[in-house]
Amino acid sequence: MALPFISRSTKRDQLISIDLGARTTKAVCLQRKPEGYVLLGYAIMDAPIYEKSLSVELLADHLKSVWQALNTKTKYVILSLSLADSVVRHAELPQVPVSDMRQIVKNNPKNYLQQELPGHVFDCCVIPQRPGAKPAEKPKPGMPVKDRVLVAGAKKQTVDDVYASIKAAGLIPEAIAPGLLGPVNAFELSLPATFTTEVVALVDIGFKSTSICILQEGELALSRVVGIGGDKLTLGLSESLGVSYAEAEGIKVGMPTDVQTNLEGLVLPLGRELRASIDFFEHQQDKAITKVYISGATSRSDVIVQMLQAELMVECKPWNPLVSLQFALPPEQVGDIENVSTQLTVAIGAAAALL
After folding, report:
1. Minimal CB count within 10 Å: which of 80, 86, 110, 222?
2. pLDDT single digits (tens) 203-224
């Protein structure tokens, strides 16, 4: 089974989008109307606890609980895999139908993706040329014409298990998406003018990992996953202060100025990794990144955002993936939506691709 991650020709009026994270599951229910998208509800729940692998039964029970928490009749689901469970790469592939591209990548992933990926399934999206961009060089006589392609992949067993779990929960699987692309889609929905005209970086700080996606005038030009996330910052703060993990999490977001010295040593390695990605892009493309937009629960800490700005030497700011949405939320969710908005980035972006 392929890994669909782009818009389908068939659109749904309502859709559940689930971001299956390492620590928490974030979900939204969106409705498409002529005047735009409407957020009908959201849920943030602890992810299932398991030892080696997440069973179909355990995931099905969890997804059913998520659906019940959303309190919706809609059963169509798109689910985003974590950064650890999916890959996204740029590649140049022969100009053939997408179904053939998938098979080409599957047969020789190391050649096209620079990585052995046994037992994976793939999907491909041809990248259109940016308006005003320099035309690609024509191939030499006898050489095949190639397309620039964005390739997404995941283990076939993971894809099969997720589809089986969604069905076992009584829901209808529409697609599985790589979590890395969620912030990109959500950013285009929220800030379309910036998306199409500027060169910016999107940094999404997850639980175990952080992703950076560099957008060049509407195109995903570079992406990378860094193995440092909010968990490492909280754990380091817990150890240095001698407090519990839960207390450290609250301090990290709620009282960071009091522990600024402790935080600096933890944030610095993340900043350096992100700076290396920015330097690589700017050197290769001779383009300067104008701003860094940060999402994820950790982005609520002004001090951490400022520390990253000092290291990256580019203006950094959190952003709201819900800014373009209308709300039709239950009364009990209205008051807290601003506090959790940055955690819903991946789920919003995945839904936007299919609505």
Report:
1. 110
2. 999 999 999 999 999 999 999 9
Can you tell me the distance from the alpha carbon of 201 to that of 140, in angstroms, rounded to the nearest whole number?
35
Residues 227 and 140 in one domain: no
Check whether residue 154 and residue 48 sit in a common domain: yes
**Residue 270: pLDDT over 80:** yes
Element spanning 67, H or E: helix 56-70
Q: Give the range of the structural domain holding residue 53, as residue numbers without chain letter.
A: 14-187+323-352
161 plus 28 within the same structural domain = yes
Q: Which residue has 């100009």 as its token pair?
A: 95
**Total-model pTM:** 0.91
The pLDDT score that the predictor gives to residue 3 is 42
CATH number at residue 26: 3.30.420.40
46 and 80 assigned to the same domain: yes
Number of H helices, E strands in the chain: 13, 14
The percent of residues in the chain predicted with pLDDT above 90, rounded, is 73
* pLDDT tens digit sequence for 36-51: 999 999 999 999 888 7
Do 162 and 238 fall within a single domain?
no
At CA 136, angle to CA 130 and CA 140, rounded to 5?
A: 160
| Angle, CA 339 vertex, CA 275 and CA 231 arms, to 5° | 50
